[in-house]
Amino acid sequence: MAKGEKATTSNTSSLIARITYGFTFVLLFCLTASALGIDSHQLNKYGNGYARYPTKQYKHDLGLILFNCIFTFLWLLAHPFISMGISMFLTFVLAVFWGTAAGILFHVLPFGHTTCGHAVSTFPSNWQPYVSQCRQLTALHGLSWTIWGILTLLLFGSLIHKVRFTPRPHVSYYGRGNVANTV
Q1: For position 108, which CATH number holds?
Q2: pLDDT of residue 160
Q3: Listed residue (151, 148, 57) closest to 108, CA to CA
Q4: For position 1, what pLDDT does the model report?
Q5: What are phi and psi of 171, to 5 degrees?
Q6: What is the pLDDT of residue 80?
Q7: Of the candidates 145, 24, 14, which has an alpha carbon nearest to the alpha carbon of residue 75?
Q8: Which of 19, 53, 89, 128 is the most exposed place for a label (fewest CB within 10 A)?
């Protein structure tokens, strides 16, 4: 009876893991598509030169976010066909890229979720023409942090799923056998 209960528990946890991973990948796809929409709108609206952007750092961060979106889509499409080790490595790389993009936006943007209703004169002069897009840029910032957080949780979840910690009797740093006999 105990073996049957253990097998049922294992099957249930495996099913829960599959559903959780599936939900996570669908959520990542939707969030990445949203970030791509806002990012491509900004890039399309202001062009390729530096003159129409408030700072060069902001323009380059939009390019990084565009790259992150494309890389995330490719990873999501390839995920079922690659090994778990490569997938974990790519999850780490994507988490670093999304965290970098979100951190740069945090540093560059003068907008926050509570400042979008403030007067135009309260923002730096180079950002004043962009005050009408405060909500879009704040949403892009939030999406970047959210994708970073989900990728980080997915990385830790994959590590926990992949690495098993089991006690091994009579094994020490000094080799097999009793520790007292090796001294």
Answers
A1: 1.20.140
A2: 85
A3: 57
A4: 45
A5: -125, 130
A6: 87
A7: 24
A8: 19
Chain position carrying tokens 């988490």: 95
Count of domains forming the chain: 1
Range of the domain at 19: 2-182
At residue 8, the pLDDT reads: 58
| pLDDT at residue number 10 | 63
Residues in the chain where the model's pLDDT stays below 70 = 1-10, 13, 168, 170-183
Q: What backbone phi and psi angles, to 5 degrees, belong to 101? A: -60, -45
CB atoms within 10 A of CB 151: 24
Q: Indicate the DSSP class of residue 52.
A: T
Residues facing 176 on adjacent strands: 171
Within 10 angstroms of residue 153's Cβ, the number of other Cβ atoms is 13
**Secondary structure (DSSP) of the chain:** -HHHHHHHHHHHHHHHHHHHHHHHHHHHHHHHHHHHHHHHHHHHHH-SSSTTSS-HHHHHHHHHHHHHHHHHHHHHHHGGGS-HHHHHHHHHHHHHHHHHHHHHHHHH----TTTTTS-GGGS-GGGGGGGGGHHHHHHHHHHHHHHHHHHHHHHHHHHHHH------TTEETTEES-HHHH-
Torsional sign, CA 63, 81, 93, 112: positive
Torsion of CA 78, 84, 86, 90, to 10 degrees: 70
